Amino acid sequence: MGPRWLADAVTLQHFGSIGRLGLLCEFLAVGGPPYWTTAVRSEVLAGMHASEACREVLACASLDSPYVVPGALLTAVFRTQVALGGGGASGGEHLGEAECIVMAEQFQCGVITDDGAAYDLVEKRLGSARVHDTVDVLRALVRSRSLLPSDAKMYADAIVNNGRHLRRTHPRTVDVSYFTQA
User: Which domain of life is it from (predicted)?
Assistant: First the structure.
């Protein structure tokens, strides 16, 4: 079994928006469940009526049940949420990312996020080997020969063309060679 990863709502929706959630699930399956948390699921549920990407995520049986964060870890989750910028007016902003980060600390696993602040915090707390974004997942699938570099480029372009955003460190348009880099 490979390393376990937890995905946040943004990344799940990226893959759902292009009808390729199966690719992300293939990457996640190497480490086994859980693949997401209840707050991530709640974020996806909140967008269900307005977003086909959210409906795709909720319909994906491969994601298995979301992990319920134990009550003993809620203080750590809320502190992490504050470190990410707080809960906003609703109190729920950054909660999914915060749960993923705290559970990654507990499970000794990684987090897949396209949220810039969450990515930076995971990298600071857990190290760069334990944080990925959509492009990192596509690159890993290319390295494992599960995906051609040309398909990785096509999927990244499709995500952007659907009005979604890759992490700011990546150029808005990429060529095929971008997915063969480490």
Answer: Bacteria
